[in-house]
């Protein structure tokens, strides 16, 4: 049995390991993890720029991968604590974006400013317990190649956004968006689709 399996199967060891990696009550790894562990665990592609003022809240027990020629702008936060974050090539992550796994971004995805993409929800059903302390629920978010998401959008857990879709600024995406479409609003709805026969974008 490997060391990792031993720790996972022993509640006391798991609790100690968790404390060593994460300060109590926080969702950010300790400094020694960020400096001494993550650079050797997570994959970062060539020519990718992660700005100094961004927060890479990455944990070694969950996958994080970012492809080639990407940029993560200042004040963005990426967190893989409750789910993997996998980012393709030539992806632009704008100012003050928040990405909480499980999330998968394809190639040439363009994210404007102040976007929240979160595969995480807190339970709320037990009214005798604060939602903050209830069990978290995660659902995979998939954003396929060539998607453009406008400023101030929210992408909720479990959503898939198809290839070359455009999400208008300020939209809240709660359901899947088909490929080659434009969606806007709260909740977001499709208003245009690309017609390959006429080679034009038509209104719905």
UniProtKB/TrEMBL annotation:
One of its GO terms (molecular function) is O-acyltransferase activity. Signal peptide: none annotated. Gene3D superfamilies: Hexapeptide repeat proteins. Keywords: Transferase. One of its GO terms (cellular component) is cytosol. Belongs to the transferase hexapeptide repeat family. This is Acetyltransferase. The lineage of its organism: Bacteria, Pseudomonadati, Bacteroidota, Sphingobacteriia, Sphingobacteriales.
């Amino acid at each position: 049995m490997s060391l990792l399996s031993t720790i996972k199967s022993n509640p006391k060891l798991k609790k100690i390991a968790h404390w060593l990696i994460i300060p109590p009550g926080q969702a950010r790894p300790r400094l020694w993890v960020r400096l001494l562990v993550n650079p050797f665990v997570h994959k970062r592609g060539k020519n990718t720029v992660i700005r100094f003022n961004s927060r890479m809240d990455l944990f070694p027990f969950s996958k994080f991968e970012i492809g080639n020629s990407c940029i993560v702008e200042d004040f963005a936060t990426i967190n893989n604590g409750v789910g993997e974050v996998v980012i393709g090539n030539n992806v632009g992550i704008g100012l003050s974006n928040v990405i909480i796994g499980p999330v998968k971004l394809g190639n040439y995805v363009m994210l404007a400013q102040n976007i929240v993409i979160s595969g995480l929800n807190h339970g709320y059903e037990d009214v005798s317990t604060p939602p903050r302390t209830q069990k978290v629920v995660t659902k995979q978010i998939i954003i396929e190649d060539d998607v453009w998401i406008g400023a101030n959008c929210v992408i909720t857990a479990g959503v898939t956004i198809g290839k070359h879709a455009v999400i208008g600024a300020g939209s809240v995406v709660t359901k899947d968006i088909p490929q080659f479409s434009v969606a806007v609003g709260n909740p977001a709805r499709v208003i245009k689709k690309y017609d390959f026969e006429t080679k034009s974008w038509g209104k719905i």
